Automatic annotation (TrEMBL):
This is FAD-binding PCMH-type domain-containing protein. Its cofactor is FAD. SUPFAM superfamilies: FAD-binding/transporter-associated domain-like. Residues 34-205 form the FAD-binding PCMH-type domain. The keyword Oxidoreductase applies. Keywords: FAD, Flavoprotein, Oxidoreductase. InterPro entries: FAD-bd_PCMH, FAD-bd_PCMH-like_sf, FAD-bd_PCMH_sub1, FAD-bd_PCMH_sub2, FAD-linked_Oxidoreductase, Oxid_FAD_bind_N. Belongs to the oxygen-dependent FAD-linked oxidoreductase family. The keyword Zinc does not apply. PANTHER family: BINDING OXIDOREDUCTASE, PUTATIVE (AFU_ORTHOLOGUE AFUA_1G17690)-RELATED, FAD-BINDING PCMH-TYPE DOMAIN-CONTAINING PROTEIN. It comes from the Eukaryota.
Length: 459
């Protein structure tokens, strides 16, 4: 074990403004920058640095915050007067060929992991955006590839290594420290320890990935949404189904894109899976493509284009009641986008949403997931874009059963994130392992929640 003198640390009081700002927000994806200022940033490149940082925080009497990928819209890692541990330089991907279990560091992205696994004919259903770190993604549940059927990414977590709030290094799984393991699958940014390593079960990589897409005028959003909703719940289970309101270069007005991406073992199976949408699509579309070959690498490129770097973001989301009249509830969200780079997303979550979940903190979902991704470049448009998100979500919220942690900002809106009993249990686990709130929890308005956590009440 090294000494604290060996820590790669940038102190606010001792560094140049340029060095400090680079460390504070240089890896924060959202350029709507937080006005919060840690006392120092530790740029950890090994596990020992994380342990030393926890001990330093104890000595200094300050909180400690964690950054895996820096992709949270609300920049949860950046906290006033805390010691920020940035894991961007701490990297590990180690595959056990026999078991198919891969050990990864939290800063590893889905693209990095799947690029390494591709050579072995394997896949992990990580995040769609190529630069999302697995740490935050898995802790909040992980709405990954084909989540509607393959299940939540956190269901593939077999064990974790953690550093606790008092500096201990522990292995957590179903048998050891199982309450932390339970919490790690769904606690999100309120997890009461620091994950240093995930052990993930991989899947065979389907050899044929193909996609079909149908672009409708925004005036036909209701017809498009009603169509896709009518077929989604019983559709082929290896197919991801999404409806997006967005602007495309070829069209002056926004459009509605209904997309089906299937993961199969042969071209014939892919065509068979996608044929029902080709046969049933309403004849109202502007453009379409059927069973077009693609790959995870190509999909990551497209996701990166849809979520550009160096932009400002404001996001929110809901799970809608299963029986919601989705086409009416979401019409404004899909057809009044405030900027050309913004988009609204509906994911079909059945059949996963109809299956019993394993015993884990993640316990909230429904058939219909809706997320608003408002994207712009100039600070002068902040009020326009932020108010659009608030106004649209205020109208949708009465139809909600809860919210996904990953696209949330607890400073702006609080609602339900877990089942009733799971929420209570999670707050108890948090108090057991982090009673003083040494490890920063949920960033609510004023950063006041501390060890208490979130109320988990539907609003």
């Amino acid at each position: 074990m090294g000494s604290q003198d060996s820590l790669p640390i940038i102190w606010k009081a001792e560094s140049t403004t340029e060095d400090y700002e680079r460390a504070r927000i240089g890896r924060v994806f959202n350029h709507r920058r937080p006005k919060r200022y840690p006392v120092a940033i530790v740029e950890a490149d090994k596990e020992e640095h994380i342990v030393e940082a926890v001990r330093l925080a104890q000595t200094k009497g300050v909180r400690i915050s964690i950054r895996s990928g820096g992709h949270s819209w609300a920049a949860w890692s950046v906290r006033d007067d805390a010691l920020l541990v940035d894991m961007g330089k701490y990297r590990q991907i180690e595959l056990d060929d026999e078991s198919g279990i891969v050990a990864v560091s939290p800063s590893t992205t889905g693209r990095q992991l799947n690029t390494a696994l591709r050579e072995k004919g394997l896949l992990f259903p990580g995040g769609h955006c190529p630069d999302v770190g697995l740490g935050g993604f898995l802790l909040q549940g992980g709405m990954g590839w084909v989540c509607r059927s393959w299940g939540w990414a956190c269901q593939y977590v077999k064990a974790i290594d953690v550093v606790t709030a008092d500096g201990r290094q522990l292995r957590c799984n179903e048998k050891e420290n199982n309450d932390l393991f339970w919490a790690a699958r769904g606690a999100g940014p309120g997890f009461p320890a620091i994950v240093t390593r995930f052990y993930l079960q991989t899947k065979p990589l389907p050899s044929h990935i193909r996609g079909s897409g149908y672009i409708f005028p925004k005036n036909n959003f209701k017809e498009a949404m009603n169509w896709v909703k009518s077929i989604a719940n019983t559709f082929d289970e290896d197919t991801e189904i999404v409806c997006v309101g967005l602007y495309l270069p070829d069209y002056a007005e926004s459009v509605t894109l209904v997309s089906f991406t299937t993961f199969k073992g042969s071209d014939a199976d892919a065509v068979t899976a996608l044929q029902p949408v080709e046969d049933s699509v309403p004849n109202l579309y502007l453009q379409k493509w059927f069973s077009r070959p693609t790959s995870l690498q190509q999909e990551y490129v497209q996701q990166g284009l849809a979520n550009p770097e160096d932009h400002r973001y404001c996001c929110d989301n809901v799970y809608l009641h299963n029986e919601s009249n989705v086409e009416d509830v979401l019409e404004e969200a899909f057809t009044t986008l405030p900027s050309r780079k913004s988009f609204t997303l509906w994911f079909s979550m059945a059949p996963t949403s109809r299956r019993p979940l394993p015993d884990m903190a993640l316990s909230m979902h429904s058939d219909h997931y809706l997320a608003l991704y408002t994207i712009w470049e100039d600070e002068k448009d902040d009020q326009l874009c932020e108010s659009w998100v608030r106004n649209v979500m205020n109208k949708i919220a009465p139809h909600s059963v809860g919210q996904y942690l990953g696209d949330s900002d607890f400073q702006v809106r609080n609602t339900k994130y877990w089942g009733e009993e799971q929420g209570k249990r999670l707050m108890q686990v948090r108090k057991k392992w982090n009673p003083e709130g040494r490890i920063c929890g949920y960033l609510d308005n004023g950063d006041q929640s501390g060890a208490e956590g979130l109320p988990n009440i539907l609003q």
